[in-house]
Structure prediction request, 318 residues.
Amino acid sequence: MEKPLVAASACLLGSPVRYNGDACEFRPLSRRWSEHLKLLPVCPEVGIGLGTPRPTIRLSRGPDGVRLVEPRSGNDLTDKMVAWAQRTSDDLAGLGVDGLVLKKDSPSCGVERVKVHPAKEGRPTRDGVGVFAMVFMALNPQIPVIEEGRLNDPNQAEHFLARVHFHHRWKVAGQDGWTAQRLMNFHQEHKIFLVARTADAKRKLGRSIAAGFDAGLPAAEVALTYMIEAQHHLNVLPRRGRFAHAMERALARMDLALSSPGREQVIRSIHAYRKGELPRMAPLVLLDHLAGSAGSVPPWLGHLSNPVPAATGVLARV
Ligand code: SF4
Prediction:
């Protein structure tokens, strides 16, 4: 299967495009995960024609709201950046991007808590969003976005990569055109994935599909609404207990004898994972093995531990 396509701030991938002519490479992404993801660099400041090196720019709060300005010259770059961000966001979605990793604290790329300076005197507040990040997230709520700082936490990294992979599978499922049957099959296959990560997304998404088709909406529109709502539900870090519950449901689906030794071993392993004594990979490997020896591994089981986090080694640490 083709690798998921992830766009990223070019400086994180090692390009020397920062204001001072440096890069700030994020090696897990640029070196380790790059084997399992197709990476696409994007630099909004170079995109609007700023040179490297260049004078610093920042978010500034004035009478017209928050603007992107170059303090030394007083140039206001907001409109230029918004226009570029709109075009580029559409282009990235058109290319089939499955996720976006952005540089934290940047007035162009930062996703949250970016410094906003008062127009005159005073201390900056940490309540801004980079202009490119803001436009991309508004135009493409179906695509997961994260800052690189959060990817240092294995739980957040695993969850982001899982969301990327979920988007990728959805894109592949609909590449020959969406039909009601294809969307229902996709939802059916991902029920365990959703149960493992969110409280009630499975039920709400099922209702959303039914409501969309009852209203006579085109299948492509229902499918897009499905992914927007799914990513909204998935925008919360899942808890250990929820995963353990999903693994127990997966085990129950396998229709094994209650006293089967393999089954008891998996149950013990799930309990140990729930208590934090084992990483998630331990019960998942046993579940996978059990499913294999009982016949074939059902596709929905693979979605509990999707291949990208496993291959990047992230799952071994959560
Ligand atoms: S605009 Fe974004 S990609 Fe370009 S240097 Fe700044 S943080 Fe990096």
